[in-house]
Amino acid sequence: MKPKLFPLSIGLIMLSLLLVGVVSASYPMFHYNGQRTGYVPEDGPQNNTILWKANLGEFIGAPPAVEGGRVYIGVWPDMNFASGEEYYLFCLNASTGSEVWRNPLGAGEGTVSGAAVSGDRLFVGCMDGNLYCIDTTDGSTLWNVPVDTGREGGNWYGLSCSPVVYDDMVLVTSMTDGTLHAFDPDGNEVRTYTTGNTTFAYSSPAVDAGRAYFAGNAVTDALYCIDIDTGEEIWNVTTDGQVRSSPAIDGSTVYAASANRLYALDTGDGSEVWNRSVSASWGTPAVAGGRLYLGTADGVMHCYDAQTGEEEWTFTANGRIDASPIVANDTVYFASNTGTATIYAVDTAGNEIWRYATTNYLQSSPSVSDGVLYIGSDEGSLYAFGDGLVPTPVFPGWSGSVRLAEGETFTVTPFNNESAAYTVNRTSALGALDAAATA
After folding, report:
1. Are strands 272-277 and 261-266 parallel, antiparallel or unpaired?
2. Are the beta carbons of 248 and 324 closer than 8 angstroms?
3. Which CATH architecture has domain 39-385?
4. Tens-binned pLDDT, residue by residue, of the chain (439 aa)
5. Which ranges in the chain are annotated with CATH 2.130.10.10?
6. Is 156 in contact with 127 (CB distance < 8 Å)?
7. Are residues 360 and 339 in contact, defined by beta-carbon separation less than 8 angstroms?
8. How far apart are CA 150 and CA 54, in angstroms?
9. pTM for this one?
10. Which of 6, 54, 241, 419 is least surrounded by Cβ atoms within 10 Å, i.e. has the fewest?
């Protein structure tokens, strides 16, 4: 029998045979890092392709955390208040959105706190006023400690700030008394600094170079700087209205937004670098590449020169912007908070790249990891947007021809795995295709 000629493109064959592992990136806490800069040093999606959408059944107000191929996200009440309804912290597979585990966080009162992941432990606040430590492996509760009052004590928000991990300590702030709390990994409180009066529920502490920055209220609303090791106050600066953002630290400057104004302060002594009037922002500014980005209640995303405070551009969304923006390399991601909340991606010059309209309100700040954008919605869905991944060849492609007579085989051995071998013969799928083509 005449031998058949099989053209083989080994690179293409191997792509279909092997799955190539990639190193998983992470987004371990709210606004990416302890400085709360919101800058992620990797690319995010450049189109609005939905990789998956997970329906979690309740409002999602928390920012997702991503670590080790898993997404951690909590839900809180959707205002239906069905009898016996529980609200969970979920762990989802980052690639598929499938549930890995869920934890009710005590009595299942819900959370809007952004989780902070460190090793195999996760720290998150709950609407019952407790700080929880969760084993990321199986979702079991390792410990919980009361930090603030919850709904039973008249505080609807409970502990809604997002924890930050710094030098084996977990830092949170309680809104009812403006107190900074620091706990060790076993839940023992090792530091407190109390300012005494109510602060904004969602404002979270930021840390850098042994200092913690947080919103406080002794007599008037102020931004505080505390030495983490000693618990001593370094400075405080009175602000025009309640500090609603979390501080964002970039080098020698800390930025924070109050109800009426955006501040840039020197981290050394709190002296003012500049300030700008803003329209009632809840969000934390993102700082990247010498620019600062902040969304406001009038539906405008602002870009400022981070050193001077001069406005460089604005982008008008379809409604108020409450969630915090993030920057992934050269793309700014943010969302409006209206009945048809829209997720936006713009470049650092303010030009729109893409948008996606949802069917409900949106207060969840976005996260980016491994090129995927994760964001929650009040419709109860967690979205994962991505461009799709192109597999990396395991070795440079080779094209050639091999003549196989009936009963002969051809074996391929990849250079990076000599113990593996792939055999082609007349009865293989490739042979079947050839037979069909010549029939």
Report:
1. antiparallel
2. no
3. 7 Propeller (2.130)
4. 333 333 333 333 232 322 222 334 899 999 999 999 999 999 999 999 999 999 999 999 999 999 999 999 999 886 665 556 789 999 999 999 999 999 999 999 999 999 999 999 999 999 999 999 999 999 999 999 999 987 677 788 899 999 999 999 999 999 999 999 999 999 999 999 999 999 999 999 999 999 999 999 999 999 999 999 999 999 999 999 999 999 999 999 999 999 889 999 999 999 999 999 999 888 999 999 999 999 999 999 999 999 999 999 999 999 999 999 999 999 999 999 999 999 999 999 999 999 999 999 999 999 999 999 999 999 999 999 999 644 444 444 545 665 656 666 556 554 444 444 555 565 544 454 455 444 4
5. 39-385
6. yes
7. yes
8. 28
9. 0.83
10. 419
Per DSSP, the three-state class of 430 is: helix
Helix/strand/coil (H/E/C) assignment for every residue in 76-111: ECCCCCCCCCCECEEEEECCCCCEEEEECHHHHECC
